[in-house]
Design a protein that fits this description.
The complex is a heterodimer of chains A (about 80) and B (about 600). Helices cover about 60% and strands about 0% of the residues of chain A. Chain A is an all-alpha fold and about 80 residues long. The longest helix of chain A is centred in the middle third of the chain and has 15 residues. Chain A is globular. In chain B, about 40% of the residues lie in helices and about 20% in strands. In chain B, helix 24 links the parallel strand 15 and strand 16. The chains are: A mainly alpha (about 80), B alpha/beta (about 600). Chains A and B meet through helix 1, helix 2 and helix 3 of A and helix 2 and helix 11 of B.
């Protein structure tokens, strides 16, 4: 996993970095709620200098989704 | 940043922080169990979590321990009405209200084609009414200071270039709304407006509207604008609990003008129009005059020949500052730490009320080491940013300016003239007679609340109990039957000293207790406090039928000048603790009017003899 993504997810949600795995899913952890999700999005956009669309933001469910989206943007 | 709470950060650091860094810092602050001096509740009808987090981190960076909460979405009335609400339970001492017009008055934002001025005007009235109602409720149901955010204008203009010519255009809507919002604070000392409109502009006005985040989660602003808003709210909240520093001590060469006066002469120094460096220093001098208007006393501390400096101010009359603008001038070759102590003594204020600005790193280091309580700032080397450097200092922030503030330096200067007269007259009573002092005492009115609160919160030296009362407390003393709050004003032949003292009595079972007696140090040593006590005693014993008065002295590091005040006023010591706390008593039969040479006393506008 991308360490920066893991770090930002931990900061935004308060989930410990060691608990974060590629399949960690937004709907399964209360700490990854709608507000912390948007904090994460803002942090990702600032860190990677990208901008996501509203659909993309809503469709992100897992760490793997984030990595796929970033790979697509930076390709 | 493994343990970010251990690290001290500055407000400027916060402005550079990413959203992730703000989150991390906020979480660390929230986990810290220490006591909070500021308890801030955020209420409104859009998602305020990002603002709350950034503001909390900012207030901490400004040096004030803080806790905060966000009330339930769009429940800013319920949060105040319901005693069990999160906000009421939290007992905030500051409440921030931020309302989104998109939710509150969509006709003003989206328009739906509405352009007729009457409909727009009615919507503006409705918004101002809602804010007024909320403020009235909050004032009644909470003792917190209120901070209402004004409205940010969207970046896209609905009617394009025609907007500014429309009587109902967006330029008109936002200017009118924000103007009317500020107007409702005029009569209410506890109500303040936060200029979020300006904060959004600082970030780029587009930052005040974040359509993606708004449509997803009702987050109205982007992270950059949020930081600027946090800075404005943070400075206001800091000013609520931290007194402003009282005096700005300025070096001269390469601080007030470019160049060294002793080498380049009055025509050689760079100041005034016609030279870019000179214009930048002029702007800095103008900013210093603005600080003076805020009630900051200016003092000069410069290694120069006094005659050279006097000549420079005479010859270069294009300088915004005049030599008279400085209440005290330490222009000599003594070490600056010695001069700075002399300035504090002459003005009768603590060295911890001083800000010292110098371009020379060696002088700055000397003051930092010898007088760490002075805020020492080394001037940035680029003169073009000097004026904004001064405006950006939170240390001179106040929530309100009073009439006394604008006259501060003159009042100190008048004090020096009084002292000179005293030296020439010699005998104290003859001197006091010659001052022709008029003391006016009255029951405090609502219009006095700001100044009275300022005296309670800022006065250290002549303050018998040093109880720091807030605006809310002062309002309740004025309204209550069992308290009497007296204001003391004074004037003499040199000028008006303004409202310089307060005395608070608590009345119970035929006795009157002096809860607080506070007097500005510049009015001391001339019998005004005795004249005021004479009147308070007469009021209590004669008018209110009190049989016994009590008083207390609670020692602090700074209130020595008040130590034997009640003894001198004829009170008897009833009890004295080891810590130096003293209880006093005075019965009606033992009460005498003490002599106050040269003082005329008025009570509620009437002569009092």
């Amino acid at each position: 996993m991308n360490e920066t993504v893991v770090g930002l997810l931990a900061d935004a949600t308060g989930i410990g970095a060691t608990e974060i795995v590629p399949t960690l899913t937004r709907t399964e952890d209360d700490r990854w709620d709608s507000l912390s999700h948007l904090r994460l999005i803002t942090a990702l956009e600032e860190s990677f200098s990208v901008k996501f669309t509203m659909d993309e933001i809503e469709n992100i469910q897992t760490v793997a989704d984030i990595e796929a989206l970033l790979a697509q943007r930076t390709a | 940043m493994s343990d970010p709470i251990e690290q001290t950060i500055t407000p400027a650091d916060v402005m550079q922080m990413s959203t992730a860094q703000i989150d991390r810092r906020y979480r660390a602050l929230n986990d810290d169990a220490g006591a909070a001096e500021l308890r801030v509740a955020f209420l409104g009808n859009h998602t305020l979590d990002p603002l709350q987090r950034a503001t909390t981190v900012m207030i901490d960076a400004l040096g004030v321990p803080v806790r905060s909460i966000v009330g339930a979405f769009d429940q800013h009335f319920q949060e105040l009405l319901d005693e069990q609400s999160q906000t009421r339970q939290f007992e905030p001492n500051a409440i921030v209200l931020s309302l989104s017009l998109r939710y509150l008055a969509p006709k003003l934002v989206y328009g739906n084609g509405v352009v007729d001025p009457q409909t727009i005007g009615e919507e503006i009235d409705r918004v101002v009414d809602i804010v007024s109602q909320w403020a009235a409720l909050a004032l009644a149901n909470s003792s917190a200071a209120l901070y209402v955010c004004n409205f940010t204008r969207p970046p896209a203009i609905r009617f394009g270039p025609a907007d500014t010519a429309l009587a109902s255009g967006e330029q008109f809507i936002y200017a009118t709304l924000n103007h009317r919002l500020s107007a409702i604070t005029a009569t209410e000392p506890r109500l303040n407006v936060i200029d979020t409109h300006h904060a959004a502009a600082s970030a780029g006005i587009a930052g005040g509207w974040n359509p993606r985040m708004y449509h997803l989660a009702k987050i109205e602003w982007d992270s950059g604008a949020t930081l600027h808003m946090a800075k404005l709210i943070g400075r206001a909240c800091r000013a609520q609990v931290r007194p402003a520093r009282k005096c700005l001590v300025l070096d001269m060469d390469n601080t007030l003008w470019g160049g060294v006066l002793g080498e380049e002469g009055p025509q050689g120094i760079k100041i005034g129009n016609g030279d870019p460096t000179g214009e930048a220093f002029s702007a800095f001098q103008s900013a210093a005059l603005d600080m003076k208007a805020r009630g900051v006393v200016l003092a000069a501390c410069s290694k120069n020949n006094l005659a050279d400096v006097e000549e420079a101010f005479r010859v270069r009359d294009d300088m915004p500052l005049k030599l008279d603008d400085f209440a005290y001038r330490a222009i000599n070759w003594e070490p600056k730490n010695k001069n700075i102590v002399a300035i504090a003594q002459a003005l009768n204020i603590g060295t911890d009320s001083l800000v010292f600005i110098d371009d020379n790193p060696v002088e700055c280091e000397l003051i930092r080491q010898t007088l760490p309580e002075v805020l020492t700032l080394q001037l940035p080397s680029d003169p073009s940013i000097l004026a904004d450097f001064l405006y950006d200092l939170p240390d001179f922030d106040k929530l309100r300016l009073t009439a006394e503030d604008a006259r501060k330096t003159e009042q100190y200067a008048e004090n020096f003239k009084r002292e000179e007269l005293q030296k020439s007259v010699g005998d104290l009573d003859t001197f006091l007679e010659s001052l022709d002092t008029r003391v006016e005492i009255a029951q405090a009115a609502t219009s006095d609340v700001a100044r009275v609160t300022q005296l309670f919160t800022k006065t250290n030296q002549f303050n018998v109990t040093t109880i720091r009362y807030s605006t809310t407390d002062v309002e309740s003393f004025i309204a209550a039957e069992d308290t009497a709050l007296y204001t003391i004003r004074a004037a003499d032949k040199f000028g008006d000293l303004g409202l310089i003292g307060v005395c608070l009595l608590r009345l119970k079972n035929g006795a009157a207790a002096i809860d607080s007696f506070v007097m500005s140090c510049r009015a001391l040593g001339r019998g005004i406090e005795t004249a005021a006590t004479n009147l308070v005693k007469a009021q209590a014993f004669t008018e209110r039928g009190v049989t016994k008065m009590t008083a207390r002295y609670l020692p602090t590091k700074k209130n020595k000048p008040a130590v034997d005040f009640f003894e001198r006023q004829g009170f008897t010591v009833a009890n004295r603790t080891e810590a130096g706390e003293v209880d006093y008593v005075l019965s009606a039969s033992d009460s005498n009017k003490l002599p106050t040479p040269g003082i005329t006393v008025l009570f509620e506008g009437q002569d009092h003899e």
